[in-house]
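Running this now, will post back.
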Amino acid sequence: MQDSLANLILWAVAIIAVLVAVYGFMQVLTLRRLLDRNKHETQMLVQSLRNETHAMGSGSIGVGQRLLEVEKKLNQTMERQADLEQKDVGSLPYNYAIRLVEMGATSDDLVENCGLARVEADLIALVHTELRNRQRADTSLENF
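Update: finished.
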């Protein structure tokens, strides 16, 4: 009887050991699937971050190039402003007046728009009229 009880206990221990082993194996398989799924999700996240990093890098390169263009235009504008500041400020109304006369302005227009004295406006209009008459005369002589 002791032998059969001992055999029964051994069989019970063996069955419990097998059940624990099967349960452990099933847990290992479950953990393995979970690990594979987490590995795949991590790889997808890493790829997504790489793509976003690449896009941000490309965008920042474009912004950098645009910034260089704006800086170049700013430097050119600053140079032009310095050039204009160095020009004779007194000659600007006369240059503007000459352009207005070439477009057909009268002496009165020059006095109003350029701030010139009446005598200055008349002189510019007279000189321009004489130059225009001379050019017409030269052109008509060339046609003969």
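Residues 88-144 form one domain. More later if anyone needs it.
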